[in-house]
């Protein structure tokens, strides 16, 4: 097939014609503790005397994580993290996991990645939260040297705890070293973002960056609070924004005021297809609102969320989206431009990645 022909292909035909792994991709939403290699979980458990794993066979362990995470609700999806966090309680373990994350990104064709974690979950073995952040940053830096992938680290607060202000201050403290923003993660139902408004105000006063998991396991109210109480610059998932729009009988889309705001303000939506299926945020991928949002101009991008739990990669997410929503190569490029424009990295770095990495990468595929 001549390269120029690729521009005419869509969906399954495009997937058949192209190695999606090689497409330059941008990932904004992945959890460090949700993306370990199964073999690393086992090795770290051995090294650190962690005895809680259900098996020491890497294939069986991977299948165990996938089964556990795919029970259709967020609380059960999150149960596996007890084990991944259980083996990430030393600086060496955190550094290794962050380094391997970068190697995996290179393998997956990702040119810029933001990865997130909650340092508080890594203090059971005696580390301070600052030590946990320092170790993760060291692994990411070493990974960049070896694999050339650009990155940023996001610090998560946990929505069921009252320690979010401490997490926000931690994020701000490490901003010069590679921390690019702040997130609120964990079980959503019963834990509204506005309870953490002090933490978000601290981030805002520091002129720093906010993304919030919202509209994944709870509805429009959570998205509204994330934006209008907490000042979110991006939203994680936001699947339930679909509830604030209506497809009318003539096929046109009628938006509620929140959906209109998200569209007009270009609020980036970090969408995670497989994860949404596994947590029950969506019951049928063909009906996932990603397609509706993308076709109607919302600033959406594709993400993995938790590569281990959801048995996914950026390549798999992109193939899935291309097949389900009949995407063209230009659509895939657009999704990755949406992502890099929405990154928390400084403007100059984003411009550099757009013009020296993403645009030339897709132009070369088209034979330009
Ligand atoms: N932590 C890891 N994955 C998550 C998800 N999908 N939602 C909320 N918190 C998470
Ligand atoms: Zn997430």
Number of beta-strand segments: 10
**Kindly, what is the distance between the CA atoms of the first and last residues, rounded to a whole number of angstroms?**
15 Å
* Structural class assignment: alpha/beta
Give the DSSP E fraction (strand runs of 2 or more residues): 5-15%
String of helices and strands: HEHHHHHEHEHEHEHEEEHEHHEHHH
Give the CATH class: Alpha Beta
Hetero compounds: adenine, zinc ion
What number of structural domains do the residues give? 1
The major beta sheet can be summarized as: 4 strands, parallel
CATH topology: TIM Barrel
Instruction: Specify the overall morphology.
Output: globular
What's the tally of helices?
16
Overall pLDDT confidence: 97
Rg over alpha carbons: 20 Å
Helix content: 40-55%
CATH superfamily: Metal-dependent hydrolases
* Low-confidence parts: none
Gross CATH architecture? Alpha-Beta Barrel
Strand order of the largest sheet: 1-2-3-4
Describe this structure in words.
The two termini are 15 Å apart. α1 packs antiparallel against α14 and α8 packs parallel to α9. It is built from 16 helices and 10 strands. Helices cover 46% and strands 14% of the residues. 49% of the residues are buried. Strands 1-2-3-4 form a 4-stranded parallel sheet, with helices on both faces. With 368 residues, it is of the alpha/beta class. The protein has one domain: Metal-dependent hydrolases (TIM Barrel), CATH 3.20.20.140. It is globular, with a radius of gyration of 20 Å. α10 links the parallel β5 and β6. It binds adenine and zinc ion. Adenine (ADE) binds next to α12. Adenine binds next to α12.
């Amino acid at each position: 097939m001549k390269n120029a022909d690729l521009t005419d292909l869509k969906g399954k035909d495009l997937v058949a014609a192209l190695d999606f792994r090689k497409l330059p991709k941008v990932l904004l939403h992945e959890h460090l503790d949700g993306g370990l290699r199964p073999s690393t979980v086992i090795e770290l458990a051995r090294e650190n005397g962690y005895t809680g794993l259900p098996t020491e066979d890497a294939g069986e362990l991977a299948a165990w994580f996938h089964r556990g995470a795919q029970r259709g609700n967020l609380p059960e999806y999150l149960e596996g993290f007890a084990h991944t966090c259980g083996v990430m309680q030393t600086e060496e373990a955190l550094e290794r996991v962050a380094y391997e994350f970068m190697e995996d990104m290179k393998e997956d064709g990702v040119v810029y990645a933001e990865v997130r974690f909650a340092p508080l979950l890594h203090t059971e073995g005696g580390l301070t939260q600052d030590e946990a952040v320092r170790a993760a940053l060291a692994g990411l830096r070493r990974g960049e040297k070896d694999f050339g992938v650009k990155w940023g680290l996001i610090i998560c607060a946990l929505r069921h705890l009252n320690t979010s202000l401490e997490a926000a201050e931690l994020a701000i403290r490490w901003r010069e070293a590679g921390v690019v923003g702040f997130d609120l993660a964990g079980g959503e139902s019963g834990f509204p973002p506005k309870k953490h408004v002090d933490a978000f105000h601290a981030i805002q006063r520091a002129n720093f960056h906010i993304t919030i998991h919202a509209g994944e396991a709870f509805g429009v109210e959570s998205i509204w609070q994330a934006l209008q109480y907490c000042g979110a610059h991006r939203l994680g998932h936001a699947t339930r924004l679909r509830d604030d729009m209506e497809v009318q009988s003539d096929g046109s889309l009628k938006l509620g005021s929140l959906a209109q705001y998200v569209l007009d303000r270009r609020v980036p939506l970090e969408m995670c297809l497989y994860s949404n299926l596994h947590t029950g945020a969506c019951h049928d991928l063909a009906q996932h609102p990603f397609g509706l949002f993308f076709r109607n101009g919302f600033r959406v991008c594709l993400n993995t969320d938790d590569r281990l739990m959801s048995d996914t990669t950026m390549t798999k997410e992109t193939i899935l989206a291309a097949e389900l929503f009949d995407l063209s190569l230009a659509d895939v490029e657009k999704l990755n431009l949406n992502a890099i424009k929405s990154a928390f990295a400084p403007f100059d770095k984003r411009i550099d990645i757009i013009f020296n990495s993403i645009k030339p990468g897709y132009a070369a595929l088209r034979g330009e």
